[in-house]
Amino acid sequence: MSQPPAPPDPIPLARRLIQAPSVTPADAGALDVLEGALTALGFACTRYPFGDVNNLYARLGTAEPVFCFAGHTDVVPPGPDAAWTHPPFAAEIADDQLWGRGAADMKGAIAAMTAAVEAYLALHGAPKGSIAFLITGDEEGPAINGTKKLLEAVHARGERFDHCLVGEPTNPAHVGDTIKVGRRGSLNGVITVTGRQGHVAYPERADNPIPPLLALLNRLTARRLDDGAPHFQPSNLEVTSIDVGNAPHNVIPEAARAKLNIRFNIAHQGADLKSWIEDEAAAVRAGFNGRIDLDLTVTGEAFLTDQPAFTDLLKSAVIEVTGKAPALTTGGGTSDARFIKDYCPVAEFGLVGATMHQIDERVPVADITLLAAIYTRILERYFEAFA
């Protein structure tokens, strides 16, 4: 009786990806490495450059359903090389861990995705459907020339996805802890209050911008936004900076500024929060002779993937491989899933993120191999259920 083929080893590809120093927005050959691996598996690959960012779309098969793996090959700057135990782009293996910038976030996961497809093809042949890869070089950057534009381009070309899995490092301690089934929204705000400069001994000749700025911030922070929502923690507003830049003691400054961020759940829409801030600013402005200018940007709306057929499938695959039941959560920051959710149901599952963006980023070699096995089982269950 013949034995099933040994599972492909994702580590060589992970090392080659890390060795490409793709600090956002530079590609540094990372997509060449991935494209070569995917082409060898039969994928049709197309590059989509936008501005200084390179992106890759790859597809295996022409039929439906289409299961899409999504992620990014760009990484954050490593900081000083001398601070690392092992050079950040050497991709060294030591103490049973793979060291390097991007090991956890998220080149290790991309290698696991690729190995999973190779394993699936070896075990089952071509799927009764299609597998796609949506890979950007602009997730860690402004996210302007990456996934958002890539989705628009491939959608205009007629590409459609039925479900998508993003390989962000979702697990807090162990692979299998957490599947992200949504994300909070994010609103960035800059408040600039402009008054009239003057001498502190003659306040009637000046308009101090600081009291109205503080009054507005007090009004904003006094509101309890909500008590949470299903799968979501309560929304929070955080003042992140108050700047006046006024050195002398005897001068009333002309302007004062503050920055804030709101992480909000599905109880809110970004536009409603912007309107609330504008209304509060108008109330404060009514008693002030100067100006209050607002720069409010919603970088992503809150969303929840309420698709039990898909999320239960993911959860079952994790249980079968790891023996543990992952929590379905929405915590953490934003990701490119905020763009993908407009095209298909999306979830996120990847490696442990404890060292991502840190000096000495690293991940156990066994975790990447385990993740590849989970991704393989997800593909098996997906095409059993949806094809």
Tell me the layout of helices and strands.
Elements: H1 11-18, H2 30-40, E1 44-47, E2 56-60, E3 66-72, E4 93-94, E5 97-99, H3 103-124, E6 130-136, H4 147-156, E7 163-166, E8 178-180, E9 182-183, E10 185-194, E11 198-199, H5 210-222, E12 236-243, E13 251-252, E14 255-264, H6 270-285, E15 291-300, E16 303-304, H7 308-322, E17 327-329, H8 337-340, E18 346-348, E19 362-364, H9 365-386
Parallel strand pairs: 3-6, 3-7, 7-18, 8-17
Antiparallel strand pairs: 1-2, 2-6, 4-5, 5-19, 9-16, 10-14, 10-15, 11-13, 12-14
Helix pairs in contact: 1-2, 1-3, 3-9, 5-6, 7-9
Descriptive account of the structure:
The relative contact order is 0.20. The protein is α+β, with helices and mostly antiparallel strands and 387 residues long. It folds into 2 domains: 11-183 and 302-386, Zn peptidases (Aminopeptidase), CATH 3.40.630.10; 185-300, Alpha-Beta Plaits (2-Layer Sandwich). The strands form 6 sheets. Strands 1-2-6-3-7-18 form a 6-stranded mixed beta sheet, with helices on both faces. A 4-stranded antiparallel beta sheet has the order 12-14-10-15, covered by helices on one side. The protein has 9 helices and 19 strands.
The spatial strand order of the largest sheet comes to 1-2-6-3-7-18
The helix/strand series, from N terminus to C terminus, equals HHEEEEEHEHEEEEEHEEEHEEHEHEEH
Which class best fits the helix and strand makeup?
Answer: alpha+beta
Helical content band = 25-40%
CATH class of the largest domain: Alpha Beta
Please tell me the total number of domains: 2
Work out the number of β strands: 19
Report how far the terminal alpha carbons are from each other. Answer: 29 Å
Rg calculated over all Cα atoms: 24 Å
Mean pLDDT over all positions: 96
CATH homology superfamily of the largest domain: Zn peptidases
Low-confidence stretches: none
The outline comes out as: elongated
CATH fold topology of the largest domain: Aminopeptidase
- Helical run tally: 9
- What kind of sheet is the major sheet? 6 strands, mixed
CATH architectural group of the largest domain: 3-Layer(aba) Sandwich
Into which percentage range does the β-strand content fall? 15-25%
